[in-house]
Amino acid sequence: MSDMYSNVHLILRWLHVIAGITWIGHLYFFNFVNVPLQGALDDATKKAVNPHLMPRALWWFRWGAMITFLAGLTLFVLTYFYTPGVGLGPTNLLMDVDGITDRAMWIFFGMLLGTIMWFNVWFIIWPAQKRLLKGQVPAADIPTIRKRALLTSRTNAFLSGPMLFGMLAPAHYGAMNAFSLILAFGLGLVAIGASIRSSGSVGKLA
Ligand code: HEM
To answer: Distance from the CA of 134 to the center of ligand 1, in angstroms?
Structure first.
């Protein structure tokens, strides 16, 4: 209990990961379960079910993304820009005698992908879903808006593989090289493959 820095760090990591699970769990629910389910429902059932299902699922989805993002940025500052007893400034996890460390390169890679995903949630997927749920989209534009939201959601499913690799690699893997980057993106392809297999082509859904 005496080491306040370590305690705060651990609680922040816990918050970051539990919010990340909430966010990515909902992303996978949408991609792997809900898209194929919606395709199998008739209009009357959709009208009965979706007003209860979608606002609730989208709430956990977007706020999970926000908490993950904010806790992640704080974690970044605390890990790479703060030394207990010294204060703010680049730590030896960020820079060593050879310049930027591989550990820092990995977290930059993960944070870049995570930030693109967060942006997609808050500025593309959620605004599109909100307009669809409120019935604000003219009938002729519905397929286009649905397709945009679906493609963005699939992009996020793809990015989730390499993004998570970039989260785990800093502390648990070392080198960043061509092999490890190919491996990270290969894992993304597994996620998008599962999404497409379970929900059919975008053309069919729109
Ligand atoms: C949205 C942008 C994100 C940012 C800015 C971010 C930032 C960070 C940072 C700075 C770390 C610490 C790295 C280190 O110890 O060197 C980390 C670790 C981690 N992040 Fe993220 N992250 C993001 C998204 C996510 C998401 C969506 C997940 C999904 C679950 C996630 C899961 C993890 C995990 C599991 C760790 C490792 C914890 C550990 O080994 O102690 N992150 N993240």
So the answer is: 34
